[in-house]
TrEMBL record:
Gene3D superfamilies: 3.90.320.10. GO terms for biological process: DNA repair. SUPFAM superfamilies: Restriction endonuclease-like. This is Uncharacterized protein. It comes from Photinus pyralis (Common eastern firefly).
């Protein structure tokens, strides 16, 4: 079952595919994409427009935080190549703990 579309046929903006599409649209500076998925009723396509507001409110801050706290420190001072554990900022550890509680 594909949960990318609601029962009314509208795009589910909480779906992980929507986040991925918005990220790709912003990174590639495209204005839209044509999303296609095979369903039991055949091929379903949807034109997804770049959503600057969604990017600003739902994605940008989290991505910048991840880059600054997780990726950049490893690029500047790699620990993996020295067989050291990778840094886990408090925000990451908290997210892991929250996910464990939900399971």
């Amino acid at each position: 079952k594909i949960l990318f579309w609601s029962s009314k046929g509208e795009v589910n903006q909480n779906h992980k595919w929507y986040y991925q599409i918005q990220g790709q649209l912003h990174i590639t500076r495209r204005q839209y994409c044509v999303f296609a998925a095979w369903t039991p009723k055949g091929l379903k396509t949807e034109t997804i427009l770049k959503d600057d507001q969604f990017w600003k409110t739902e994605m940008e801050e989290k991505l910048v935080s991840f880059y600054m706290k997780c990726l950049l420190p490893e690029l500047v001072d790699p620990r993996k190549v020295r067989n050291m554990p990778i840094r886990d900022p408090d925000t990451i550890l908290q997210a892991i703990e929250n996910r464990k509680r939900k399971l």
